[in-house]
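We were asked to recover a plausible sequence for a given structure. The inputs and outputs are reproduced exactly as logged, with field labels preserved.

PROBLEM: sequence recovery
POSITIONS: 584
GIVEN STRUCTURE:
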């Protein structure tokens, strides 16, 4: 019997080895073939138009495309802001590119990312080349980007959603009572409202005020930019938004929001006329994702290096990856850069709502160590709040877009409780311990007064440390930091006014400033952390979150944040933005 078991195991092992060898061979051959095809496919002719059609979610850094994915034609469901900006910059200098056509379909980008793309397009126009925009229907964010164009067109049956900004927050107190699944919440900071939906059935005055202030700041920035492009005044734009005055294409033309309502073929003819082509001539359009293959996202071409370290996603205690910020990977990267003689400065690009307070503190300490050797400059993306601000506050200089979300200096703890639900199903938990607080927390029992007091003390201590870190980094007193903290969020524009941010600007501004601090004018950038493009790395990325940066993947990450790592003495204390800010 044992002989038969060994024989079967041997046969099975051999079979698996043969299958894996075949798969690896297929991957190698297909990878080479796809690489050759890609090189042959990207051909740019004279009098070409760069088509910007951004239909995928936008991340700050281009997602790593593993060989495994390339070989099997698996498309990476995201497009990198770094490559978009680099492509627009390259098109400005490319004599074969005559202009840009913005033909996006419902942007999946944050406000700061949208502004960065818009600024790059405005810079492109300095070359004298044209930008046209066409869409069947413009969402508000779509129109904000398109408003940089020389001429804007819309389908006759379409329109423009210019209606002002809004944000919706869901509340779960009554839901918890009905289901028996509750959240035990301990927080610090009057504005720390990430946990508010578990405590109330309506919005607090503090939360309403901070969201309103944030939306007003974003809207003011958008109006300023739209006013620059159109002949519309700020007052007129606000009137249009209040009255939905551009909801149809005819209305949009009448009020001057768009230039004309035309069909797609008429728009194609306009582009041909702009290029002085005959009716029978082919219009050479190259999609930005194809054009990216001919450009590099690095900045500069000198001998020194400025490292751009991307921190995007939730901050977790652990390894982390492309879409999660873990202290293990980030600290390892910062240590490497500290000892790298060619690297003269580091730019930390943060796009994170925060997360683990402990991981944030560990990353902060490593940045402090790095600063002893090299300048560290922060560039904020869509969000650099709470834990995201924690790791930013000690930098030598902080840059943010006017529409970045930052601040949220506050701390909270959320511990799930299913005691009522379990009792409804006839499940009870009994505990046996050697000491009174051995079972400090269990999802089956409410926190005891002693346990709640202990966790509250831990949160108070972490909040105090957070304030001290910000005070030291920003040159303020702890008392002044506390006045603008309390978990309150700020726009990048407002954060400059209260001293949490030094300057308004994008990633390139941060890189230029880092080079200035390093006293080098001959440099190139390099992106970190470094990821391998092999099968092992691909499988590791699936382990952390198999759905990656998709909407479902992000939802899974948020649920993991709440329901995992809840051991009270390790990582139950969160420094996270006070709400999921969904702006429309």
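RECOVERED SEQUENCE:
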């Amino acid at each position: 019997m044992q002989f038969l078991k060994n024989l079967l195991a041997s046969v099975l092992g051999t079979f698996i080895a043969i299958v894996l060898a075949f798969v690896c061979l297929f991957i190698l051959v297909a990878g080479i073939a796809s690489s050759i095809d890609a090189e042959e496919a990207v051909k740019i002719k004279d009098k070409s138009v760069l088509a910007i059609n951004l239909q995928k979610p936008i991340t700050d850094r281009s997602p790593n495309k593993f060989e495994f994915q390339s070989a099997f034609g698996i498309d990476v469901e995201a497009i990198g802001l770094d490559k978009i900006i680099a492509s627009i910059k390259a098109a400005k200098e490319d004599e074969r590119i005559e202009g840009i056509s913005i033909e996006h379909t419902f942007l999946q980008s944050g406000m700061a990312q949208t502004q960065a793309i818009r600024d790059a397009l405005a810079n492109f126009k300095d070359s004298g080349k044209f930008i046209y925009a066409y869409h069947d229907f413009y969402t508000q964010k779509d129109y904000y980007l398109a408003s940089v164009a020389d001429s804007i067109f819309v389908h006759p049956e379409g329109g423009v959603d210019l209606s002002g900004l809004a944000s919706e927050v869901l509340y779960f107190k009554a839901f918890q009572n009905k289901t028996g699944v509750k959240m035990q919440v301990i927080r610090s900071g009057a504005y720390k409202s990430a946990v508010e939906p578990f405590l109330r059935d309506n919005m607090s005055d503090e939360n309403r005020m901070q969201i309103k202030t944030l939306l007003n700041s974003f809207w003011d920035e958008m109006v300023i930019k739209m006013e620059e492009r159109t002949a519309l005044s700020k007052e007129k734009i606000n009137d249009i938004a209040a009255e939905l005055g551009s909801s149809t294409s005819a209305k949009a033309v009448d009020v001057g929001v768009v230039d004309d309502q035309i069909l797609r073929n008429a728009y194609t003819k306009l582009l041909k006329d702009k290029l002085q082509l005959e009716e029978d001539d082919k219009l050479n359009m190259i999609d930005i994702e194809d054009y990216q293959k001919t450009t590099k996202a690095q900045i500069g071409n000198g001998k020194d290096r400025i490292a751009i370290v991307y921190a995007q996603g939730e901050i977790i205690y652990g390894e982390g990856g492309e879409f999660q910020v873990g202290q293990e990977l980030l600290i390892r990267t910062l240590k490497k850069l500290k000892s790298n003689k060619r690297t003269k400065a580091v730019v930390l690009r943060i796009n994170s709502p925060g997360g683990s307070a402990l991981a944030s503190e560990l990353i902060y300490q490593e940045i402090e160590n790095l600063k002893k050797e090299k300048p560290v400059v922060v560039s904020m993306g869509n969000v650099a709040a709470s834990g995201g601000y924690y790791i930013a506050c000690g930098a030598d200089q902080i840059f943010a877009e006017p529409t970045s979300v930052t601040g949220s200096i506050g701390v909270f703890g959320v511990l799930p409780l299913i005691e009522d639900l379990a009792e409804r199903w006839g499940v009870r938990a009994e505990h046996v311990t050697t000491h009174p607080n051995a079972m400090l927390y269990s999802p089956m029992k409410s926190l005891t007064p002693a346990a709640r007091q202990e966790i509250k003390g831990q949160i108070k201590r972490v909040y105090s440390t957070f304030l001290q870190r910000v005070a030291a980094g920003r040159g303020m007193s702890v008392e002044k930091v506390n006045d603008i903290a309390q978990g309150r969020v700020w726009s990048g524009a407002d954060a400059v006014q209260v001293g949490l941010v030094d300057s308004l600007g994008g990633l390139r501004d941060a890189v230029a400033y880092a080079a200035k601090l390093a006293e080098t004018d001959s440099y190139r950038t390099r992106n970190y952390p470094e990821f391998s493009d092999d099968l092992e790395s691909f499988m590791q990325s699936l382990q952390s979150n198999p759905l990656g940066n998709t909407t479902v993947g992000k939802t899974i990450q948020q649920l993991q944040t709440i329901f995992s790592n809840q051991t009270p003495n390790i990582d139950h204390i969160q420094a996270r933005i006070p709400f999921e800010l969904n702006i429309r």
